[in-house]
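User: what does the whole thing look like in 3D?
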Amino acid sequence: MRAACYTHEKLKPIKQKKIPTLASKPGGLERLKSVIEDVWPQTEAVAAIGLGSPGPLDPHSGYLLAPPNNPEWHNFPLAPSIEKHFSVKTYLDNDANLAGLAEYRFGAGKGHHHVLYITVSTGIGAGVIIDDRLLQGYHGLAAELGHSIIDPDGPPCSCGFNGHLEAFSSGPAIVKYVLGELEAGIGSVLKRDSSMTARDVAEAAQQGDALAIKAYQRAGEYLGIGVASFLHAFDPSIVIFGGGVSQVGGLLFDPFEASLRKRVFHPRYLEGLVITRANLGDDAGLLGARALAEMKIGLK
Amino acid sequence: MRAACYTHEKLKPIKQKKIPTLASKPGGLERLKSVIEDVWPQTEAVAAIGLGSPGPLDPHSGYLLAPPNNPEWHNFPLAPSIEKHFSVKTYLDNDANLAGLAEYRFGAGKGHHHVLYITVSTGIGAGVIIDDRLLQGYHGLAAELGHSIIDPDGPPCSCGFNGHLEAFSSGPAIVKYVLGELEAGIGSVLKRDSSMTARDVAEAAQQGDALAIKAYQRAGEYLGIGVASFLHAFDPSIVIFGGGVSQVGGLLFDPFEASLRKRVFHPRYLEGLVITRANLGDDAGLLGARALAEMKIGLK
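Assistant: Here's the predicted 3D structure for the full assembly of 600 residues, as structure tokens:
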């Protein structure tokens, strides 16, 4: 979870701090308050506080809905509690939306007005900027692009539903595919091991292991299918990839780009389209919380 | 093609007119000009002209790109030509975007801020309103939701690419499915006939024909899969269906709703969600051209 205090005066630099594992231990709200107090500026008025958290959550009400691992936070009024305690306007959104907002404001997407940010990691999340505005939706649940249905008969996603992009192209999906193929008797330097990670598969691929290469090719191909549909839906000028799995480079992105080009139904979508990596790293969520607060109080 | 002249003063009623078959006969630009002259108000200044046309087109530049049936209009500066001739700001967008905009402003979507409009007809088009703004995208090609990839190995779409929503749930897709099943020897009151329409299939279904019912069930099921992904992407508060095929009612929409509910990955998307039919009929495109002009000159 992340918190950013925003000081109104002259767009001064923002005080911000990342709070790890907030959701997985009890007493999180008190820890969050004390972290905000730690970064509270001495001499200036605070205009707004921005908070980021894993979803699902409601950015309109500031409630956490049902974050995994901690029942303490189910249906919890996080932003209202902080707002009441500090008497300062407080805004909340999910990590992927905020990372997208941050890349648009401060990172790889600077200068673009239509941004599609996709994080490929243990899950697949997204943040979408349309005409310089963060897409949130009626319930605040828009841009859940990892849960786009890519193949109705596809494998189950972590959410329990079938055939989502996340079930094809996330880190765990890559591992699951390899384990299935190993079980079916396909040869590989990789061994059947439940602790296998997408990084292990990437290392095997870099050593030339055919199964490992095929696993990333498959993930990239489905990612291209998904992103083709996202271009048709949002028509962005830039697609930015973040998340651990995206760091493998060409292993994933060569088959991704080939698949995307094969699937986009009109060449105009690709005219001037930038496809690139996120450049804010771990700071993206925190900078996004800042950008959210600035956006909501109308400074940007 | 549609044209609307908008008079600035006191939000007066707009002069508007539909021009049939503009694109399929030569001399269309001159006919369009003369129609606009016909509706030109006698005593008031015209603030803007709104134009609607089948796509693909570029709403930012006002160029038609490659409308079917008439090479005269390929890469043609339609809005700039009208704007120059009348010395009045002129705006252009495609029929589906404008119908969505019209339903949001004047029709079934009035009062909603996040609207998903889908027309199911010979093709499948869409118009999306996000936070009270029409989604157009960087190249003006956003919201082409009929070309969402629903199944990568699915049947070819009218655009030539495989597995698009339009290839499963449009009128021609329903007919094609029936013809394929008849060819495979499935019994039906319907006969193999290349002039078969989706309406013929609907009539057979209403008489209890099992194949015809199955054809609409299949179209509705895939429509539900597509719309589930669109809810995850846009999170609207209302889904509005227009287009001829949508007039069959429960035959399509009962299986659609069952499929949608089965596929939406979080129940919150459905909370308060309205699913309804368009109510502006054939006027939607024309009212959309008016709404576009009003939106662009900042009156709405």
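In plain terms: The longest helix of chain B spans residues 210-234. The longest strand of chain B covers residues 46-53.
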